[in-house]
Amino acid sequence: MSSSPIPNTKRPMAGLTDTGLPVKAAKKHKADKSDSSCPIPKTEVPMAALIDTGCLVKAAKEYKADEFKHALELSISIMRSCPCARGVERDMCTCKDFEKVATQGGSIFREALHTCHCDVGKNFSQCDNGHHIQALCSRAETFEEMGKLDDAMKDAEWILELAPRLPDGYLLLGKIAQLKKNDEYAWKIYTAGIEANKDTIVDSSKLQQLHDARKPLNRHFLRQDPLCLPAEIVSQIFFNLKCDEILLCLRVSKQWKCTLTSPLNAGLWRDMTFSDRKMRMDQGPEDFKRMLSWAGEGGARKIVIPRELGLLLRQDAFTTLLGESPCLEHLTILDLSEEMVFPSDGKKWNRLRYFSFESGYSGSSYGCRVDEPGGFPRSFLQDAASSLEHLDFDGVPEQWYYEPRVREPFPLSIAFPRLEQLYIGPNLPYLDPEPVSIWREKRDDIWPHLKVLIFESDGYREPSSDTARTRSTLRFLMCLNHGNTLQHIYLDWLSGLPDVDIFSDRDKTLPDFDIVKVQDSDFYNLRSFNSISLNMSPEGAQNLLSNSIQTKQLTSLDIVFPKYYHRDIRPLQRLYDPVGGRHIDYLRSYDWARGAPSIHTLGCYGFHLRRPPEDDDDHLLVQFLASFPNLQTLCIDCSYDDRADFMSLLLKILRLTHLKSIYTQLYDYESDTHFRQAARDHGVRLMENLMSKGLPKPWPVPLGV
Description:
By secondary structure, the protein is α/β, with parallel strands linked by helices. It has a domain of 199 residues: Serine Threonine Protein Phosphatase 5, Tetratricopeptide repeat (Alpha Horseshoe), CATH 1.25.40.10. The protein is 39% helix and 10% strand. It has 28 helices and 16 strands. The strands form three sheets. The chain has a nine-stranded parallel β-sheet. A five-stranded parallel β-sheet has the order 1-2-3-4-5. Helix 22 links the parallel strand 6 and strand 7. Helix 8 packs parallel to helix 10, helix 10 packs parallel to helix 12 and helix 25 packs parallel to helix 26. The chain starts with 22 loop residues before the first helix and ends in a 17-residue tail after the last strand. InterPro entries: F-box-like_dom_sf, F-box_dom, LRR_dom_sf, TPR-like_helical_dom_sf, TPR_rpt. It comes from Claviceps purpurea (strain 20.1).
């Protein structure tokens, strides 16, 4: 616990000499200085005359320890002189336990005012006599100077017992609690004192002292009912909770339930995002209907059903949840039980923009027919097709894999005319360009807002008419609207002839389908082209990328060095020598891209280092990378005969570029350790990843303004 300033509770004392003693007492002290003992008055004297002995606390700092005893006995005499004692010695009540009450969250003021079962409460009344209170304060401060904090705390609690409506006891008790490193107890004491005095006429300076003493502790211990805060802050607090967590908050009090379910907080119930913690699902349709009524007209705008809830949700509750939300805009379902069916009553979901459905293993739609229990919700999606902007689903019906038109993207363009991002794969290996006439006639009308195209296919498939048709379809998709709406292209495809370039006019496999050519498109707005497997010739790369480099739009580029094969042998067999020399010639063909100022991320895959490396092998690649003035991120993967050659290449890249991050695969070899240290010395962050994955790919892709 951090320390906080401890208030000064000592009171100014009148009629003192420079030593801190009363004038008369000072004279006596001078006479008796040789004798450390001081006679204690045997007779009671007027309380007003004795109260000045409280100044002995200050004087005691300069005296021997024996002087403390004299000060304490004088304080006792003062307390006996108080009318509340009625001439007898008054003891402290032993029934009260302020610290225990504070720990349990009880009222300290009520404990001081009412709790007493011993004879003290029967024989003596409360006392707010200022002289009595000051005498106890003086004695407590004397104990404090003596280091007896437990005794000082007892006297402070005694003041609280005598005068629970005065601030003196709270100030002193809080101060001593802080000296004992019990800041939380001190904060509760100060708070109790403020509450006890807020409606009474007391010395405003002492009440202010309570506020000042508590203020440094508020940061650690102030717990305020959030509903007492301004409404906009209340909303911000509860918007951070999930729907089922807000339901638990309704149990706090009637006020909380009334406030959180009022029309003022309807926005809380328009976001029906449930937490993924394990929960007991006993809500029925009436429960959901009541919750959605708190959202106001239109019900929920966002519903997120985690896996745990989806497997426990009943059909009638699920139907109610959707049916009572006609203004639904976002629906995410991570799983549903295999008995569940989406509503398909013809109701139009003309505001639903985001739909994501992962059917998982328990409710997999793979073996189920569409629109049947556990099946793919085709009718539901058709009712929402006019407004959908984001569609993400997993677990399509088994029969769809055998439908010939599933390969044809054109029907999708009719169902989703305003599509902006298209991700195909990884389990759809082939595409079909049919009907070709449509692409020819409506090239400028199909998906006029398409900004992102991703095609990712897993595994390798031998060259065939299917792989050739897939290449043609990809060309069609890239060249829609002359390529000018596309901002991001990612193609990861290993099938067919790996050294056939789909971006130039060299692909003559299916001439009847090649009605669209990349070189006839512009791609002025392309921000990134990425692939870790698909090689394109320098000619094809120039067709695709040169305009966006000239307009300074292209920021990210991957270069995949070609693999060479025996084209007349099946299955295909790699050629390895002299690949290194061919790669140098291939890189020289990219001179048109050198020095592009807009490029800040570059991938380099499949470059082959010869053994022993020739000067041009690494020198040309390093100089190519160093030509980009704003290059910050490099993802690199090379083939080599000696690991040390690759590390040497990376060290040269470090010295001649201004990189901030390098993605590559590192091991525990000595050369790798040396490179790691060099990267740290250059302030370059190493991101060690499996090169088969390339750079991380977010989905959906963030789009710039």
